[in-house]
Every structure is written in structure tokens, then in C-alpha cells.
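Reviewer 2 asked us to include a model.

Predict the structure of this chain.
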Amino acid sequence: MRVLVAGGAGYIGSNMTAMLVAEGHEPVVYDNLSKGHAQAVVQGARFVEGDLADYGLLVKTLKEYSAEAVMHFAAFIEVAESVREPLEFYRNNVSNTQNLLSAMLECGVQKFVFSSTAAVYGQPEETPITENCPTRPINPYGESKLAVERMCHWASQAQKLRYAALRYFNACGAGQNCTLGEDHEPESHLIPLVINAALGRREDAKIFGTDYETPDGTCVRDYIHIEDLCRAHLLALAKLEEQRELVYNLGNGTGYSVRQVIDTVKKVSGRDFNVTETARRPGDPAVLNSDASKANRELGWQPQIPELERIIETAWQWHSRHPEGYE
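Predicted model (C-alpha cells):
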């Protein structure tokens, strides 16, 4: 299938593009390189440097490459930044996605796989979190993703779109034989931050809060390997042949604490480093854990790399080979 991958030079998008190529699809990466990296665009994929705000270029690209589906990863993701600059998040994550959807419909492209987030749930009332839990985002990032989900829902109801909204928990690890890893600026994800401490690129690894009601007092999160995440996208794309509207959680269903992540990085890297314990951050739930049984049941999807140590081993290999990132 010919697939336009919006944000295909980013972390998740580049791994998705590589998997599409490996599975015999024909991906076209569309990315403005504001957050992505040209070096992450894999061989076998075509590349168009462009912005989602450029409606004319979107239409031209979709038509020129006869796209049959779109996978959308081009979004701002930093929660703290979303609180400081909410209008920028709505412009990029919502308005630009509306632009993309309009261009798709003008070109007769109906299949749309959307990179959503567990942040749509906000502070969960219960864990593990199912797709039926209330969606009550507590920051503009989560709100922007939920707004796109609602936009897709109504477009689907109008028989104009077939879409899958995939609500990620914590995507992590490196894919494609550890050649495609995380390189964010600034970095806010726990595993690469702790690995950077092991590499001596940070003074310490920080623990925000040690008095939560969890086994070791630190926050527990659900980590999903990047290749498991991408496999779910392929399955969802195929499922759109028979259903118009899909919503799935994507996570391991197994939570790991901040302290477990730090201890596992020390074990995998064979290095010790400073760990600083400090106060809780406002708005951090004690536990965020997924129930992904719906994806398992309906897509036949099951994580193949669920163990924290294996996930971190892939991330460690990439970061230790690319201490400066792609640049």
C-alpha cells in the first residue's frame, strides 16, 4: 500500500516507515524537519520536506504519489511546553491535522492512522486504563490529541473517513536492529534521560517523588517497545478495510517504577551514576498502566518485547553508539 507518513523523520515515524518498507509497502515521508532528523529517513522511502500547514503541497504530494492511506505522527509532544504555549499546540496538533484531513478527502484518501496518547485520560479513576475510561485531559497536549480524535469521529460518522486512534502509553527502545532511536530536543522521556546519566551526559538521574502508594514509592508507568507499537499500526491499517472507526490503547499492561528503570539501566550499561531524589511534580499520577486487551482481541496484537531489560538494552545500544544523537 502507498502510505504517506506525516512526521516520518521523527522517532516513532521513522521506525514506522522502516517497518512499512520491510513489509513491502511504499511509504512517502512528509516532514518539515523541525523535530525530526533527515538521517532517520530510511532507505527505500521517498521524502518530501514540507509542513502540514501547506495545503497545496499536501494535495500535490498525495496526488503525485497516489497515496492510499496516511499515518500521522507530526505533533508537538512536550507536556510542559503545551502548558506554556497552548495556542501553538492547538495550531500544530489540531489545525494542521484538520488541514491534513481536508487534503486527504480532496484527494479521495480515506484511511487514517492517528498517533494519539494515554494523556487523553488525564488523572485516571482506575488502573489498568481501558478505552472506556473517561477522557479528561489535564493539559493542552492531551486536549489537542483528544480534539483530533473527536474530529475524526465526526468525519467518520459523515462517511468521509476511516480512522484508527492509537492511544500510546510510554513508547521506548530502539528499532530496526537498534539503528533508529530517540533523539528529542529537549529530552523529557525517562529512559533516554537515565541513559544519558549513565553516559555522563547528565549530572544525575532524577526521581520526582518517593512517597507514592507504589511498591517502592516511585511512579509506575507502562513502557511499550517501539517495534511493538509499530506492529499495531500495521494491524490497525489492515482492520480499516472492514471498520470505519477504531480506538485502541497500546501498552504492555505491565508497569515499571522509576526506580526499576534506573536500576535496569545500571545493570544493562554496567555503569553507576548519581541519582537525586526530589519532590513530586504536580499532576503526576502514582500509576499509569494500560489495559490493551481490546487490541489483542480485535487486532491479534501482542507485545513481543515486553521485558523492561530487553527494551532498555535496545535503547542503550542506540544511545551508546549515538551519544550526540543523529547530529
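The radius of gyration is 19 Å. DSSP finds ten helices and 13 strands in the chain. We have added this to the supplementary material.
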